Amino acid sequence: MRDERADEAEAAAARREEADAAVERQGQHLLEAWQSHLDAAQQLQVPDSGDVLETLAAWTASLHGDNPARAALHRAQQAASLRLAQRQAMLQTEQQALEQEQATLHAERTRLQSGEDALPPPPAWRAPSAREGRGARRCGNWSNSRRQCRPICSPASKPHCRPRVCSTPG
Fold first, then answer.
1. How many CB atoms lie within 10 A of CB 73?
2. pLDDT > 90: what percent of the chain?
3. Where is there biased composition of kind Acidic residues (predicted)?
4. Which stretches within the chain are classed as H helix?
5. Cα separation, 30 vs 59, whole angstroms
6. pTM higher than 0.90 for the full model?
7. Three-class SS of residue 31?
8. Are 158 and 142 in contact (CB under 8 A)?
9. What distance in Å separates the CA atoms of residue 100 and residue 90, rounded to the nearest whole number?
10. DSSP characters for 82-115?
11. In degrees rounded to 5, what are phi and psi of residue 165?
């Protein structure tokens, strides 16, 4: 009976050694697979993958808790998701601004094609309402025009010129 128990103990110890060796081989395969996966990852970059693999090696011996490599990959996925969402929001804002600018330019082109002349904005040093109610004055008298404003063309081509419009009092 004692020999049977000793034989059973030896067989159990041999099975235990085989099981431990199988677990170690599977752990090594798991480490190699995760290392290959982390090295090949293009979109999800796991920072400190060496530390993750060391933690995974320790985890394969006990299998207590969550897989540290999977947890690190999940954190990388969350960080990438946040980064991509921020990028998408920025691109949508840029697209809206470009669409608004495009609409403004189309409206301006339509106005210009219909013959509307756009007035330049008032100078920054002058209040926009400074010239309200004041009409432009023509400098039609050539003798006066030399005093108040200069003609657009020379006196030799006077018959072909139109008098200049000016806003000086006359």
1. 19
2. 46
3. 1-10
4. 2-40, 49-62, 68-113, 142-148
5. 11
6. no
7. helix
8. yes
9. 15
10. HHHHHHHHHHHHHHHHHHHHHHHHHHHHHHHHTT
11. -90, 130
Least confident interval from 1-15, 97-111, 136-150:
136-150
Residue 144, CA distances (Å) to 5, 98, 138 in order: 134, 51, 11
Tokens of 89: 């929001």
Torsion of CA 69, 71, 76, 77, to 10 degrees: 120
Nearest CA among 52, 88, 102 for reference residue 72: 52
List Cα–Cα distances, 140 to 3, 63, 119, 157, in angstroms: 135, 100, 23, 15
**Interatomic CA distance for residues 95 and 18, integer angstroms:** 63
CA 15, 32, 25: angle at the middle one, nearest 5? 5
Domain-wise residue ranges, the chain = 7-111, 142-166
Cα–Cα distances in angstroms (integers) from residue 43 to residues 38, 76, 79, 88, in the given order: 10, 9, 11, 16
